[in-house]
Amino acid sequence: MADPFIRTQMLPPMAPPVRTSGSIAWIRANLISSWLNAILTVLAIFAVYQFVMLALPWLLHGVWYAGSLGECRDIIAQNFGPDAGGACWAVIRARWHQFIFGFYPPELWYRPIICFALMFVALMPVLYSDDPRNVGRVLIPLVLLTLLVLVAAGTPAPVFVIAGLGLTGCLWVGMRRPLGLLPVTLLYPFFTVWMLWGGSVWGVATALFGFVVLWAVYRLTSQRIGVVLATSAGVIAAAVWWLVIAGYAVDSLQAVLPFAITSVDSDKFGGFMLAFVIGVSSISISLPIGILLALGRQSNMPLIHGISVGFIEFVRGVPLITMLFTASLLLQYFLPPQVQFDLILRVVILVTLFSAAYNAEVIRGGLAALPKGQYEAADALGLDYWQAQRLIIMPQALKVSIPGIVNTFIGLFKDTTLVSFVGLMDPLRGVTAIVRADIKWKGIYWEPYLFVGAIFFLACYGMSRYALYLERKLKTDHR
Amino acid sequence: MAIATDAPKPVFRLSQLIYDTRYRSYTIQVVVLILGLLFVSWLANNVIENLARKGKDIDFGFLWSRAGYDLAQHLIPYTNDDTHFRAMLVGLTNTLVVAIFGCIISTVLGVMIGVLRLSSNWIVSRLMSVYVEMFRNVPLVLWIILVYVVFSEVAPQPKDFKPVDGVAKASMMFWDSFAITNRGTNIPAPMLSRPLPDIGWMPTSFLAVLILLGASFWVNNSIRRRAAAVQEATGIRPTTWWKSLAVLVLPTLVLLVAMGFNLEYPVLKGFDFQGGIRLSHAFTALTLALSLYYAAVTAEIVRGGIQAISRGQSEAAFALGLRPGRTMSLVILPQALRVIIPPQISNYLSLTKDTSLGIAVSYLDLRGTLGGITLNQTGRELECMVLMMAIYLTISLLISSALNFYNSTVKLKER
After folding, report:
1. What pLDDT does residue A329 have?
2. Which residues pair with B83 in a beta bridge?
3. Which of A295, A332, B95, B333 has the CB geometry, 3.0–4.6 Å to B366, for a possible disulfide?
4. Are B264 and B191 within 8 A, CB to CB?
5. What is the pLDDT of residue A18?
6. For residue A477, what pLDDT is reported?
7. How far is A65 from chain B, CA to nearest CA, in Å?
């Protein structure tokens, strides 16, 4: 009987198989794994090639310094031959300020710039409430960039110093405790309105004081008479303040302490500044209204339920354009004859109502996704309705609906372009039409639309990326 | 001996209206009702006062007066002697035709892109991602305007199609049947040389084709049902594809030939193309931009739907011995469709509403006729806007009730 064979020394290691790793294997697996795949690859490469051959020369031949489209064409023909096509970026160079600021006075450009920078500061406690490192990552470049831009925009020295100190202070607070910036967030809307439109500071201050009145009345009475009554009392007190007292207060304060900055009319607003004004204000106001509507729709009081459903379904059933035309044509009919609203304000109101209905549906989805046990547990703990909503229901429901809310916001921001149909100068149609109507730039189309589209793309893509980040961060379940 | 007393009778106190949850909801509702009525009456009062100030009234009678404007694209007969009401109907059909074409094209494109985005082919899936992100993150109006501008400024003039010294600057496409000029897109028109006689206003020939097609589908369904029954009984499915093909295609083909179906091609005569159908650039731009934009949205929905089905489902199907095609059609798709269809229908809803963006290229849809020219001519903003909103609302409610009906039929029946 022969001894069984036993190997006594190790085999030398073999080279890794060529077909499962490395670039060739990657190509085999991802590009030509089957006949169909190979054909698709060839078609895709062909399409990309065609596109690049079409677009690349056009981009490379771009002209930045010219006075008109004709000049652009002459320069391109001179440099690259008579048949060459090329981009005429000179139009962006000549008119970029209208795309960004509309007809806002150039010497006051620092105001929208400061407001834009402060927007990010104000967003920090909301976006990164427990993440100071990200606050730093966003704010440090932002502050530096803002200061640079402010210098370039020719900001008066005192304003520059104040803005620099303010922003640095915000940065210092935000990097320690992002929630410390919450006062900035709360004051931001009032500050921005005052900054952009200018005029006396007291108009905005008294409007702000109305909210203080509301809050004070609520705090004083809520222990004794309950949340609902206290809120109603607060609203009534604030309304009395706004409608009756505020007018006199503004006049007398202005007489005592005349503190005002140059005021700018609404018809000077345009371009991306207008898009941001309408978008940001509608977005921030529509969220609370949307939450209330969603709660109303879930309510078991038939009247409240009916009103909410009717409103939501009506708004979601008509196109935004009809809402905008309502703002420009019909709102006058529904208001007392002596009241005259600014067109931007009217548009903001209607756009807010519009997106509130969409937010309501998104949040309702979040509410419906909660298991019934959560409501029952809140009841069992003896929480009343608003406590249960604030402490148990809303934190979970809002978390679920964040992607939907961000999608609504993206949609809303894109839809701000529609305001051009009621005569406002949005960047896409309003300003581009003005530029294209100029005899010097007549016949130009790719460049302005590409420019505007690229900015919209950056803003919307950024928002959707943020939604993804948040979704990942808030995912506390297993997996 | 203790005397059992009755439990203290509950005394109704006024404060219970606020603090007792049994009554509080009534209090709140009554207050809301009163406030709501006050608000509505305030609005109504303002409207009456404002109308009186401008010397206007609310009267829909203007709908029956002469419109006096022309509409180039009308699917129902229309001249400028017709009423505003008829102009409104023309606008409505124009809205619907864009909506229908947009829905069809965006669905086909979107499903293709959504599936390709999941493809294992790296280049293709990347390209599709770029497409989707590009269209989703840029306003729809930009696409509409851009397509319109490119069509009307880049396309050649009709005279360029005329050969000069044997060479024309521009040429027609698809075997001389398509011509894109700066005035519009000319396509062949389907014509009947021996149509059925019309009865009244009814397009008899068209209806006949529709009825025949419906009947063919019904017969085809019964063929498939019978094949399924045979499969249940014997385990072998009889081949039916040639029967289906014959039933679906042949009768309609015969009817069309009998009615003398032919295509009328656009031909360059004088300074412009004659014959065929001319699609305005507004129509083309609106339909194309809506289709491309909503294809991106649809692609995301389709991708989400397919990814929502857990891998275990397809693995189980393979374990049962189903081939990939059958796995897709019997296991994956029925489950994915349940996820896909509700958002897809609300997608159709948004597409229909977004046809109103035709205003960017002066497309004369419902908003262009009723909410545009009619409104400006008659000066009746209130009536026109209310009517227009009501029509859009009706369309939306119809679509969303279809959605709810569908949802209730496919909903998982749990417990």
Report:
1. 83
2. B66
3. B95
4. yes
5. 65
6. 59
7. 24
Q: List strands edge to edge, sheet with B277-279.
A: B179-181, B184-187, B277-279
Q: Looking at domain A268-479, which CATH architecture does it have?
A: Orthogonal Bundle (1.10)
> Across all residues in chain A, what is the average pLDDT?
84
Phi, psi of B2 (to 5 degrees): -75, 140
Tokens of A374: 């959560």
Nearest CA in chain B to A409: B137
Taking CB atoms and an 8 Å limit, are A333 and B51 in contact across chains?
yes
Cβ–Cβ below 8 Å for B127 and A47: yes
The DSSP string of B277-346 is: EEE-HHHHHHHHHHHHHHHHHHHHHHHHHHHHS-HHHHHHHHHTT--HHHIIIIIIHHHHHHHHHHHHHH
Contact between B383 and B58 (Cβ < 8 Å): yes
Q: A219 burial class (0-12, 13-18, 19+ CB within 10 angstroms)?
A: exposed
Selecting from B29, B122, B392 the residue whose C-beta is nearest the C-beta of A322 gives B392
Confidence of residue B246 (pLDDT cuts 50, 70, 90): confident
- Which pLDDT band holds residue A352 (cuts at 50, 70, 90)? very high
Check CB contact under 8 Å for A449 and B25.
Answer: no
As a whole number, mean pLDDT of residues B373-380 equals 84
Q: Which residues have C-beta within 8 Å of that of residue A68, sequence separation ≥ 6?
A: A440, A441
**Looking at this protein, which amino acid is placed at residue B164?**
V
Of A44, A313, A329, the CB nearest to B385: A329
Chain A contact set for B375 (CB, 8 A) = 329
Q: Which residues of A9-48 are buried (b: 16+ CB within 10 A; e: fewer)?
A: eeeeeeeeeeeeeeeeeeeeebbeeeeebeebbeebeeee
Instruction: Give the mutation candidate from A46, A331, A334 for the B interface (greatest B CB count, under 10 A).
Output: A334
pLDDT tens sequence across A263-313: 888 888 888 889 888 988 888 889 899 999 999 988 888 898 999 999 998
When mean pLDDT is compared over A330-339, B154-163, B289-298, the highest value belongs to B289-298
Residue A289 · residue A356 · CB < 8 Å: yes
Per the CB < 8 Å rule, is A40 touching B119? yes
Residue B203 φ/ψ, nearest 5 degrees: -75, 90
Q: How far apart are CA A326 and CA A315, in angstroms?
A: 12
Taking the CA of residue A414 and the nearest CA in chain B, the distance in Å comes to 5
Judge contact between B292 and B135, C-beta under 8 A: yes
Are residues A303 and B33, on separate chains, in Cβ contact within 8 Å?
A: yes
Cα angle B157, B163, B165; round to 5:
135
pLDDT of residue A479: 46
Proportion of chain B above pLDDT 70, given as a percent: 91
In sequence order, the 6+-apart residues with CB closer than 8 A to the CB of A226 are B18, B19
Type of residue at A350: L
Our CA angle for B41, B43, B48, nearest 5°, is 90
Task: Look at the block and give the residue holding tokens 């294809």.
Answer: B295
Q: What is the per-residue burial (b if ≥16 Cβ within 10 Å, else e) of A343-367?
A: bbebbbbbbbbbbbbbbbbbbbebb
* A350-364, A412-426, B249-263, range with the lowest pLDDT: B249-263
Contact between A428 and B120 using a beta-carbon 8 Å cutoff:
no
Quick check: B18 and A301 CB within 8 A? no
Give the three-state DSSP class for A64: coil
**Cβ pair A152, A97 in contact under 8 A:** no
The answer to whether the CB of A275 falls within 8 A of the CB of A417 is yes
From the list B29, B124, B141, the residue facing A417 with the nearest CB is: B141
Look over chain B and give the mean of its residue pLDDT values, rounded to a whole number.
83
**What's the complex ipTM?**
0.83
Strand A260-261 vs strand A199-200: parallel, antiparallel, or unpaired? antiparallel
**Which residues does B355 contact at the CB level (< 8 Å), separation at least 6?**
B95, B98, B99, B102, B286, B290, B365
